[in-house]
Amino acid sequence: MQYHVGSPVEGEDFFNRKKEINAIWRALDSDSLLLLAPRRVGKTSLMKHLVYLAPDKGYQASYLTVEGAADEADFMERLYRAVAENHPNIMKTFVDRVADSPLGTWVKRVKKVGALGVSIELTAEAKKHWPESMMVFGELLSGLETPWLLAVDELPLFILKLLRLDDSGKRAVSFLHNLRELRQNQPGVRWLLAGSIGLDTVTGRYNMADTINDLRLTTLGPFSVHSADDFLQALARSYGLDLHPDVRSHILSRLQWLLPYYIQLVFSELLDVDNRPIRVTDIDALFEALLQPANKNYFDYWRQRLRESLGTPDDTFATTLLNMACQEPRGTRQAVLRGALGRQIRDPEQRDQRLRYLLDVLVNDGYLVENGERYQFHFPLLREYWKRRIAP
Q1: Secondary-structure percent of the chain, ordered helix, strand, coil, rounded to 5
Q2: Which contacts qualify for 95-103: CB closer than 8 Å, 24 or more apart?
Q3: CATH code that applies to domain 17-219
Q4: Helix (H) or strand (E) segment spanning residue 365
Q5: CA dist list (Å): 248 to 139, 140, 170, 240, 276
Q6: What is the spatial distance between Cα 103 and Cα 261, in angstroms, rounded to a whole number?
């Protein structure tokens, strides 16, 4: 087993999650799913692993991320490409079927990619009529004997992009309604939709919740202490590293929120520790080193994604809330957060609405956790970084 810091884990390096995987397969028997999970918890790795396992469950499957999709037409082209590139064996069937459909005049280019894959490029006309190309896509898949699983990552970020392109919300609503119709009209296709922020939060904030009411919710959380300890042991065995139980326990107690990404990050740093065997005091020194400016990329991602996921001015408002919440390990009362936001949003009703929305986003996305009347950082290491490097 190899550690991975920054890239999704695939194949033999994927660890555990048996309970979650079994629950998802059971749910997919009858429903398409909305996967809710904070970032760095291993969502993308899980989605890719499900696609890897899909043939054994009787599915053809494709994974795609739509974070970078420019518009609705680009989304559809990515969808077609994901299916074509990952399953070249159905390409002949695809081409034969589109010959007698409107899409037959919309295929600009079909080309080979390497020895196994293929790629499809749609014409400008197809992109102009993206709702029709979406319906044709569903008809094509429904005509195949094997059921399909489509794992679409970062859909909420794409919806936020549509909202920025049209702040009336009409484009986003139209797209989501078309996508819902596609899901409902093709019973042989299962969808697994996810993102680093919750699609339920986005649609709720903009009064679009009815566009996803056909989806069954499923969640992915951090490792349990037992699983995290097993993970550390498996990594240690792979690299010939002796980790005493007291050392492993101290690592997990310092992390508290046991995200696979940060477990692997800490393990990668352990390989550079000079002492053998590694001692508990070495772990404290390692955590302090992680908080130094040279390692800011391990944490600054959380700050950068606020602008990408929320846009202006919500990213500024969210930063204000996090700056307050990081001051104490046990967090900050909601009334104090409301007061801090009041300096930027004067209207009480607008302020309260925005506060509820932002707290929902920050909780769902893994920044904060609600603890009684307080909101505190979910991840102590991130809180310490935020307090040292970001908060004024």
Answers
A1: 60, 10, 30
A2: 97/140, 97/143, 98/136, 98/140, 101/136, 101/139, 101/140, 102/129, 102/132, 102/136, 103/133, 103/136
A3: 3.40.50.300
A4: none
A5: 52, 51, 51, 15, 14
A6: 42
* Predicted structure pTM score: 0.86
Cα separation, 1 vs 57, in Å, equals: 25
User: What single-letter amino acid sits at 108?
Assistant: K
The single-letter DSSP state of residue 222 is P
Using only C-alpha atoms, what is the Rg of the chain? 23
Side-chain half-sphere of 302: how many Cα atoms within 13 Å? Answer: 26
Kindly indicate whether the domain formed by 297-389 is annotated with CATH number 1.10.10.10.
yes
Among left, alpha and beta (phi > 0; psi -120 to 50; other), residue 303 is: alpha
Q: What is the pLDDT of residues 260-270, one digit of tens each?
A: 999 999 999 99
DSSP 8-state symbol, 54: G
Q: Are 279 and 250 contacting, i.e. CB atoms less than 8 angstroms apart?
A: no
Residue with the two structure tokens 């990213």: 315
* pLDDT score for 131: 85
Residue 111 has pLDDT above 70, yes or no: no
What is the C-alpha to C-alpha distance for residues 252 and 255, in angstroms, rounded to an integer? Answer: 5
Domain ranges of the chain: 17-219, 225-290, 297-389
Instruction: Tell which residue, 371, 302, 289, has the closest CA to residue 334.
Output: 371
Distance CA 19, CA 189 (A): 23
Q: Region 217-224: what's the mean pLDDT?
A: 93
Place of tokens 């904060």: 368
Q: Is residue 21 scored above 80 in pLDDT?
A: yes
d(CA 279, CA 248): 10
Residue with tokens 């240690």: 236
**In the block, which residue shows the tokens 């997919």?**
28
